[in-house]
Amino acid sequence: MNSSGYLSTSLPNSPMNHDSIQLTTAEDTIQGEFYTSLEDENSRLEYLVERRTAELKQAFNFEALVRKITEKIRDTLDESQVLETASKELAEVLEIEVCKIELYDKEYNKSTIAYEYSVNQNYCQGISRPIVDFPEIYQSLLRKNLLQYVNIVPEWHPELVKVTRLACPIFDDKGILGNLWLLKPKEELFSQFEIRLAQQIANECAIAIRQARLYQSYQGLLKEFDKLEYLKNDFLKTLSHELRTPITSIRLAVETLETLIKDDDFSDKGLISQLLQILQEECKREGDLINDLLTLTYLEAGSKSLTLAVIDLKTWLSGIVESFREITFRQNQQLKMEIDDSLPFLETDTTELERIVRELMTNACKYTPKFETIIVRAIAVEGKILISVTNSGIEIPVEEQKRVFDTFYRIPKNDPWKYGGTGLGLALVKKLAEYLGAEVFLDSVANNTKFSLMFPVGAVKDRKTG
């Protein structure tokens, strides 16, 4: 008992009591660390969930963007519209200032900026550049690898500016068509999302471009088919006229002869001679037409064989040309020959060569105006022989020159009923020339038209040994 009258009890300093306190403190520490770790794990999981949600949202937005741009791209079959839509839509979605599409030529020798979308100014549209001048760029792109790099562009600003370029090849299973270029006017790389989107749009561009080109090709075939259909109908109409005219003349001549023969008092032998001449001429005309058709058929089928002979062209050609002298005289045309005296011999099929020369001469006589000149030349040129028929006073339009050798084709401005013909003559000339191993050329300028026939070196024989 103390002085205050209260009982005082004191606990001894025990080691077990101290250890108990230390254990409690350790447990508290472990528990705190556990809660901290648990909070960290919760935070990590929440971050992963948020990130995954963002990725799913981005993927959903990505698919929506691709679908939106794809629908707009495929909404047209016009290639230029496809390029414009793809460039503009992608630039607006990615909020970049420049997007352009370049296309290769067929040989991959150069690339041309087919379309450029820019918020400021189009610097490059229509510009082409040789592939060989940029090997560090195109070696990778032509292997269908995308390319991203930073370079300096002085033309964007008075001061040097660093820009980031991204190029995505546009290709499909048929080959590579070009590249989709994106540009950021700052030193900032494109994100994986932007790259994926650009690649997807490049793939869609490849499909859309192929579709547009296929459609254009189809339209071209339709136009060509329409032309062929027109030519066929025109040919049938002309052929019908050409066949019917001689037959009509022959029938009238036969009916007239039949009437005259039944008339016992008829004695005009001159009229009978005229009727017989009509029959002969019209039969020949009909036979020539049928022969031309058959010859073209044989030549197309490759079932005609050559009968070669060596001829002195100066003598041989002069005889054929002279046979047209009377016709040109009656039509007030001048006929000239310029044949090289030292012309070598020619080995060829003379029957078919004569058909070529006669067709060219007939053509010249038919279309040469009065008082104009027809010149037949034969010369040796670098070991070859050149035969040409030139007539003045007429010129074939440039747009028609490539088609004059087509079967059934006749120049639209020429009246078929005035001049006659089926459009087989020059087609036959070209086929026969190929058959003889020669080449035929047309040169029509300055109110002069010249058809030339060039024989190869192998057909030329030296006069001493020929």
What would you say about this model in short?
The protein is an alpha+beta fold and 466 residues long. The chain has helices spanning 15-73, 79-94, 135-141, 192-262, 269-301, 313-322, 325-330, 350-367, 398-401, 416-419, 425-435; strands at residues 98-104, 110-118, 128-130, 147-153, 161-172, 175-184, 309-311, 334-339, 345-348, 373-381, 384-392, 439-445, 448-455, 460-461.
- What are the segments in which pLDDT stays under 50 over at least 5 consecutive residues? 1-16, 415-419
The end-to-end span amounts to: 162 Å
**Nearest-integer average pLDDT:** 82
Task: Give Rg in angstroms.
Answer: 45 Å
The third-level CATH topology of the largest domain is: Heat Shock Protein 90
Residues in helix, %: 40-55%
Overview of this structure, please?
The chain contains 11 helices and 14 strands. It starts with 14 loop residues before the first helix and ends in a 5-residue tail after the last strand. Helix 1 runs antiparallel to helix 2, helix 1 runs parallel beside helix 4 and helix 5 crosses helix 11. It is 51% helix and 21% strand. The chain has 466 residues and is α+β, with helices and mostly antiparallel strands. The strands form 3 sheets. A 6-stranded antiparallel sheet has the order 3-2-1-6-5-4, sandwiched between helices. The protein has a 5-stranded mixed sheet with strand order 8-10-11-13-12. Strand 1 and strand 2 form a beta hairpin. The protein has 3 domains: 143 residues, GAF domain (Beta-Lactamase); 75 residues, Signal transduction histidine kinase, dimerisation/phosphotransfer (DHp) domain (Helix Hairpins), CATH 1.10.287; 153 residues, Histidine kinase-like ATPase, C-terminal domain (Heat Shock Protein 90, 2-Layer Sandwich), CATH 3.30.565. The chain is elongated.
